[in-house]
Amino acid sequence: MSKLWQARFFTTVNHLRDLPRTSVPEIAFAGRSNAGKSTAINILCNQKGLAFASKTPGRTQHINFFSIGGAHVAMHRHDPINMDELQCLIADLPGYGYAEVSGDAKNHWQRLLGDYVQRRDQLAALVLMMDARRPFTDLDQQMIEWFAPTGKPIHCILTKADKLNRNESINVLRQAKAKLDSYVDEDGEGFPFTVQLFSALKRIGIEEATAKIEELAGLADDGAAPTPDESEE
């Protein structure tokens, strides 16, 4: 059973100075406001309302953190987290690319996200959500270019794959791999970038994404966690 199912809300921050003072690995989820990021997080964590999608996409300009370890979701949901048992944090970054966001909000988003992905030592990897029908927009590429110099992994999840037929899916995945292979460092070496197809609606790619995220976070599946009961609040 996935350790991601233990995820609980940890904290929310709007400035770098308020980032959690922890040393555990962090896995950041990023993507355009309409890429299905919140839905994917909820599916992967087996919880309906963990990540909240704003009714006005792009309005949320803060980072939400969810904890893995130190507490079990299905038991004593509201008990304090045992920080000694904390294993990982999931960082839900603000969605980007929504036209109605003000200039000031966009500037704040750029500073917050840019500084976080470039300077956060605890950040172990980036999970980049992109609509499979429209991957690698200018802002997606900007996020990749911000993060690439760190040398850390990026796992691209191409959402809404159910909207594609089989041939389209094969072509999109091949083109995405070629695009990621085109990023090289100063020595011409490739980066640790990976990509997969995903659909929350058809439950495509859930096991693949779970395994990759657990690998990136260093989470061992020891089977110790209880099965979450979504009926408990």
From TrEMBL:
A GO cellular component term found in this entry reads: cytosol
Cofactor(s) it depends on = Mg(2+)
Pfam families assigned to the protein according to its UniProt record, in alphabetical order: MMR_HSR1
Gene3D superfamilies xrefs: P-loop containing nucleotide triphosphate hydrolases
Arranged from A to Z, the UniProt key words for this protein are:
Cell cycle, Cell division, GTP-binding, Magnesium, Metal-binding, Nucleotide-binding, Septation
The cross-references to PROSITE patterns, in alphabetical order and at most eight, read: G_ENGB
Q: Domain named EngB-type G: which ranges?
A: 23-219
Q: What's a BP term from Gene Ontology annotated to this protein?
A: division septum assembly
Matching NCBIfam families: GTPase_YsxC (TIGR03598)
What role is this protein assigned? Necessary for normal cell division and for the maintenance of normal septation.
What is the name of this protein?
Answer: Probable GTP-binding protein EngB
Identify the species of origin: Massilia eburnea
